[in-house]
Here is the input.
Amino acid sequence: MTDWLLALVPQYGLWLLAVTTFLSCLALPIPASILMLTAGGFAAAGELELWQALGAAATGAIMGDQIGFGLGRSLGKTVLKRLGRDRGRDRLLAKARALLKRRGVAAVFLSRWLVSPLGPYINLVAGSTGLGWLRFTLSSVPGEALWAGLYVGAGFALGGNIHAASDMLGSILGMIGGAAAVLILGYWLFSSAKPDGRT
Amino acid sequence: MKRLLSLWRVRPRLTAAFLLACLVTLYFVGRFVTFSIYWAQHRDMPVEPWMTVSYAARSWGIDPAALNDLLHLPAPEVKGHPQPLAEIARDRGIPVADLVAEVEVAIAALTSTERAE
Here is the structure.
């Protein structure tokens, strides 16, 4: 199915790109990343405009985020209300809300590009736990722009060799994620635990 | 090292998570270096049915017009959009694998003449 989809890029280029990223933000199994890499390759070959490909991919994804957030807000509330009748669960939900309030911006931003498989679910939770629309949008837009930029840009930079682009990008994202985890855990470890036994 | 050992006694789980994160990061650094070296030497991507002529030419660093001429392929203007090899093969009534093979032969010919020049 992927090859069939890729062959449609020269003909339906920008629309296809936007629809693909839109649907992938709603958790539908569509190879949006390969398509973005290929679009970058077509841009390098002069068959798409680079900035238009970037714009289409980012716009589709941003619209998808908005729909996911809206679904979470409209459907989530009834489900959450039912869950909230239980006192224990209500306490947990309050904690989740508090966490999203404190770290919501980072969670939304990072789940756009660094851990993108999480994105669609974060959209639903963010919508249903009452993360403000403005905060959500302000972290979703730059996140999706970065996502589109990374993938379309990698396809463009590596001249359409999508295998090379996907290998390199995967490694770079892995390094970023790993380094971030090292920094956070390291800070936590070395600042909270005193070696003489006091914590 | 000593510091880590004493930390391990106080907070074993957190220390383990920290070391694991270090290992994961090192793994990706290694992966990045390996792929960088590999792809620097294997820049060209095999021709595939979804590619257009320009795409394949760009990937092999040759002039798309020269490739088009050699293969007598339709120019992009014919249908108003660039055509993938799969579509060209369908229009010609030949299996796409044959056309891919033709393109590969033409690319090989063009790269060898370019090198000779």
